[in-house]
Design a protein that fits this description.
The structure is a homodimer.
Chain A lengths: L1 H22 L2 H8 L4 H10 L2 H9 L3 H10 L2 H11 L2 H8 L3 H7 L5 H8 L4 H11 L23 H10 L9 E5 L5 E6 H6 L6 H4 L6 E2 L4 H10 L4 E5 L5 E6 H19 L14 H28 L1 H6 L2 H4 L1 H24 L8 H31 L1 H31 L4 H4 L1 H24 L2
Parallel strand pairs in A: 3-4
Antiparallel strand pairs in A: 1-2, 4-5
Helix pairs in contact in A: 1-2, 1-3, 3-5, 4-6, 7-10, 14-15, 16-23, 19-21, 19-23, 20-21, 21-23
Amino acid sequence: MDDDRTLTASQELSAAIERALAEKDLPAVTAALAPLTADEVITVLERLDAKRRALLYRLLPKTTALEVFEGLDATLQGDLVRGLQDEEVASVFAELDPDDRVALLDELPASVTTRLLHRLSPAERELTAAVLGYPAGSIGRRMSPEYVATRPGTTAGQALERVRARLSDAETVYTLPVLDDRRRLVGIVSLRDLMSADPGTPVGEILHEAYSARATDDAETAARRCADLKLLALPVVDAETRLVGILTVDDALGILEEADSEDQARIGGSEPLRRPYLSTPVRSIVRSRVVWLLVLAVGATLTVQVLEVFEDTLEQMVVLSLFIPLLIGTGGNTGNQAATTLTRALALDDVRPRDILKVLAREVRVGLSLGLLLGAVGFLFASVAYGVPIGTVVGLTLLSICTMAATVGGAMPLIGRTVRVDPAVFSNPFITTFVDATGLLVYFFIARAVLGL
Amino acid sequence: MDDDRTLTASQELSAAIERALAEKDLPAVTAALAPLTADEVITVLERLDAKRRALLYRLLPKTTALEVFEGLDATLQGDLVRGLQDEEVASVFAELDPDDRVALLDELPASVTTRLLHRLSPAERELTAAVLGYPAGSIGRRMSPEYVATRPGTTAGQALERVRARLSDAETVYTLPVLDDRRRLVGIVSLRDLMSADPGTPVGEILHEAYSARATDDAETAARRCADLKLLALPVVDAETRLVGILTVDDALGILEEADSEDQARIGGSEPLRRPYLSTPVRSIVRSRVVWLLVLAVGATLTVQVLEVFEDTLEQMVVLSLFIPLLIGTGGNTGNQAATTLTRALALDDVRPRDILKVLAREVRVGLSLGLLLGAVGFLFASVAYGVPIGTVVGLTLLSICTMAATVGGAMPLIGRTVRVDPAVFSNPFITTFVDATGLLVYFFIARAVLGL
């Protein structure tokens, strides 16, 4: 009876997995798996071939997955790990869209993760990280599983022995994560600490509190954290703070270098080049710049429309057109100053999105001060050259534009962060277009009011 | 007779140093010292008080300084080192202007340097670095003298013993510079290498080639080097490649963080804030931005002057003014894209100033391609809205402006580097102003030609 049920379930599952492999209908497999106990799953697994076994195993919830893994014999454990490393299996998970990935793939138990990532090349690791469900760009795909861990009860001398045994293959031996019995990160100890301590001292007495990153965290964020804290290595953990890997400062620096290149390019309004400048084909350079340039140019047609509205005013007073580049240029500069300052403050964690009201209050004051200064200079300059009425218009416009530009420029990066757009992308080009168009509106409204046009 | 001469020399020197302390006329001391042998200098030194002795000693040429130091007895050596660490003595050298410093202060022998910097706090080190003649902003002022060095003939086991003895006070024990008998850097060995090797292996057999920085190098350049090479520590040497200190990756990261904040601020056209944004007074924020804003605004008056020249043309065809923001905006964007790409390429050493012709050739082609694309779009857009003649003007202007802006934008950072201005400062604001003014010139020349005005 029981055997019958298992057999039927197994047949259904085999059929479901057949379909899943053909149609990639993973939710059906998950549904079929839901009612089974760990023992039942093991019975099913034992009857499948390596690839299907891996696929099915990966769709188990974390707790079941741990129980199942521990229930398998050592040979089958090894087979399963190799199956999960298989390129074909990986490709099934790599092609999942991010939402499905979150819905379908629970974390694997840390013990399985560690075995899965062990002794892989970085390229193989990147592939396998997709199986683990770590999203593209996450630190889970860049961390190394070749850490040397120790336990609080281990003595410094024993830990040193462990370091000696791993000298040739560990990513770093200078920073040792300290784990409890359930692989949870409880602290960190440096090789220097271990060498300084009496050999009999338990690691638990000399460990330090550990900073860490989540495997699903953005790689750049984790790398920045490692660099900002000036650590030689940052442990990477899963949702239950179980250790799954380590990020060394040299890898962190590599990640930051890539990220900085991208940010710089985007601040300048182009897509990053993937190769050194002189060996990138002109065609690729053009491609990296043309989209942004077109988008910004289309945005700039807004200025044409604004000016068209005021074409009559311009006809009456052509002199007003002389100040257009100066006024919108100053607005753009003021906006970019504020945006750059706040983008940097965000990156350094000096400011968070919830500080937006404080930032607005400060930037209004900064903008007003700058506007008063520049407005006064502009008033004098334009009054001398074109008379006091024009001077008044120019002065008042500078005052308004500076205040508006500083406020908008300061707020943009925070808004960008809130809606999860890279602040560097969101801010400068947007600000320039926005400030150009609204600046012209302000200019002509002031001109009409002051000059009575 | 000999005694007489020495006595006279001594009296002259004492008088000269008296004056030097009062008037800071150090060249006079240098001149008085020039004819003396090392033994004679020692005789003179022994008769002076501690501060004068330090002052005088520091003005000796390097070779004499080494001979003199080795000729002094141990007590006097210690006194001399303490004298050189004296705040009053340091202030004499700190106030030298950079040219005088280069002219007057030869390097100190590395053996003296090391003793001088030993066990000082970072603040004291910074002060003493002025005595050493390292210019402000150089890595000599930021490096740590607390390295653990070893020699090629030392065994791995002996080197490990040395590491153990220095665990509590060395800046790093993970990277050991390897020095020859004359303190010259001949390689580097990691703690990991030492632990992996058989204890009897000489360090000379397991050392690696060492990268290093000169103590007078710019701190940011040295830090960038350490980060780019992904080293845990970079040895710092004097002109004769003798080791004087070490830069660890955590200190390098601190230096880069400061430098990046400055660069970011300057790209955005403001001076860096020295404090977190929210705790910087509004007054200071205004001050950090106002100077650049004024400079750029004054630069932008160029556009007013250009437009004034073409005021008649504008009166005849007010419609031309509608495109001013779009045209100069696109020029600015194109220029900034090129400038940002080349600034980054310079920072990554993908491009050097001598590649300028290659860069120009590429950017002309990139600019032409972008100009053809945007010009075609602009032609269509403006032709539909304002007729083919205006469309032709807008299209041709976009073609010209994009070509010019990409070329100028690409060349600026290289020129900036050549004339030793930070490329980040030189490029974007300059380009915008330049492209705005010349873009308008091009626009109106094309308009006159095409429209027959």
